[in-house]
Amino acid sequence: MQDLRTIILAAGKGTRMKSSIPKVLHEVCGKPIIQYVLDIVKSIGSLKTYIVLGHKSNLVQNYLPKDKIIIEQKKLLGTADAVKCTANYFRSYSGNVLILCGDTPLLNKNVIRSIVRRHKRSKAVCTFLTAVVHDPQGYGRIIRDESQKVVAIREEKDAVGFEKDIAEINVGVYCFKSQELFKAIKDVKPNNKKNEYYLTDIIELFFLKGCKIETVETDDPFEGLGVNSREDLALAEEVIRHKILRKIMSQGVTVVDPNTTYIDANVKIGKDTTIRPFTYIEKNVRIGEHCIIGPFARIRVDTKIGNNVDVGNFTEISRSKIGSNCFMKHFSYLGDTFVGSHVNIGAGMVTANFDGKQKHISRIADHAFIGSNSTLISPVRIGKKAVVGAGSVVTRGKVVPDGRVVVGVPAKIVEKKEEK
Ligand code: UD1
Ligand code: MG
After folding, report:
1. How far is the CA of 197 from the centre of ligand 1 (A)?
2. Catalytic site residue 26?
3. CATH of 230-413 among 3.40.50.1100, 1.20.1330.10, 1.10.340.30, 2.160.10.10
């Protein structure tokens, strides 16, 4: 969109989180909150994105992609002040500006698009998103007159009497005519209980000047969820988790019990795979078709699993790659390991991949058979069709040649009969 720029407000302290890391870096389903907002901005094709940072800005900056324009808000004086900090970048710009809060991970790109569309069509000075919610506590309330025209947004702390009962809230997504925004923002005063410059006060200023204000109401009660506390964080996690599960099921994956299945954002699972209860699949995992995962499995970051693989109960796989047609059915741990295809990993097998200082990589080739209760002290290599006997310990640096059998502690090659 050539005439649209975006500002993301993310300077706040997030006091209610009681955290040593900035609020917007907290993860929801394995993805930082601000990344959800960045993904939305990307999908609507805004020309430029300005991100206002303040509290522990270096931590957020380190996370952000390098093409974003970062603006430092030196003193956290409120959301209107945060917008004011960007003014220099908008001097010669006469298009529209979309403003989002960095703490709203549940925004829907289609709704954001419809705000921008409505804004352009109606020629309003400001179009913003509202939601009618069950529990409006903590949000700005939308004050309307008898003809339903928006008069003001009243923040929770300043709401009095009937205003507290208003269920229509401000989500924190606004589209402004840039010139009008930066003119009016100078007139916002910190006349409220928190002595902050509220961006939301600009609505009343526009109303008093007779400017056109439009609203779009979302029918999703969770879309407006701003993560301000740990409780909000858990709620966002629950909502997004079920969204992810619904999407995965719609792609042909069986999730036996969505209530006990945890799948992070950015996980891909092939069709006809079944995820059994009490399974946790972390971000950037890829699982092929016709697999059975769980119950009680934990598949950790960056793991890749091929087709027709069974990963059974009490198993953990971390940063590993498993080829197709493998079995790993009971009580095993695979870390930093490349496994070929048609491999059997026996019950209780463990890779000891961490030596106290660093992690090491092991390789298990096609058709290998790793016996029950064996330990591979990484790095090791298990050859094609090789066998590790039950209870063996394959010590660090060991290479088991193709087709050979090792047993014992430490594991030794069993000589072939003809070699005796
Ligand atoms: C804000 C809105 C409220 C709305 C809610 C939706 C204001 C005054 N209120 O309240 O109407 O219902 O969002 O979630 O805008 N920030 C800065 N600089 C500051 C202060 C805040 O960049 O000086 C950023 C924060 O990092 C955050 C966003 O602005 O991402 C909103 O601030 P927050 O403190 O979360 O405001 P809310 O109380 O949630
Ligand atoms: Mg908030």
Report:
1. 11
2. no
3. 2.160.10.10
Name residue, tokens 């964080």.
233
Give the integer Cα–Cα distance in Å for 349 and 236: 37
Between β-strands 375-377 and 304-305, what pairing exists: parallel, antiparallel or unpaired?
unpaired
Q: What is the dihedral of CA 105, 108, 109, 113, to 10 degrees?
A: -120
CA-based nearest residue to 404, from 365, 353, 374: 365
Predicted local distance difference test score (pLDDT) of residue 417: 72
Does the Cβ of 170 fall within 6 Å of ligand 1? Answer: yes
pLDDT digits (tens, 9 = 90+) for 167-220: 999 999 999 999 999 999 999 999 889 999 999 999 999 999 999 999 999 989
Residue with tokens 């193709």: 402
User: What does the longest C-alpha to C-alpha distance in the chain come to?
Assistant: 100
Give domain 4-218's CATH superfamily. Answer: Spore Coat Polysaccharide Biosynthesis Protein SpsA; Chain A (3.90.550.10)
**pTM exceeds 0.85 for this model:** yes
DSSP string, 388-400: E-TT-EE-TT-EE
Contact 340, 381 (CB under 8 A): no
Ligand 2 centre from 226 Cα, in Å? 5
Measure the CA dihedral 158/162/164/169, to 10°: -100
Q: Where in the chain is the domain with CATH 2.160.10.10?
A: 230-413
- Provide the 10 A C-beta neighbour count for residue 226: 21
Cα(255)–Cα(249) distance, rounded to whole angstroms?
7
Cβ of residue 323 lying under 6 Å from some atom of ligand 1: no
pLDDT in tens, 240-274: 999 999 999 999 999 999 999 999 999 999 999 99
Instruction: State the pLDDT confidence band at 68, using cuts at 50, 70 and 90.
Output: confident
Q: What share of the chain is helix, strand, coil (3-state, %, to 5)?
A: 25, 30, 45
* Helical pair 109-122 and 33-44, crossing angle rounded to 10 deg: 50
Q: How far apart are CA 280 and CA 314, in angstroms?
A: 11
- The residues of the chain that CATH labels 3.90.550.10 are 4-218
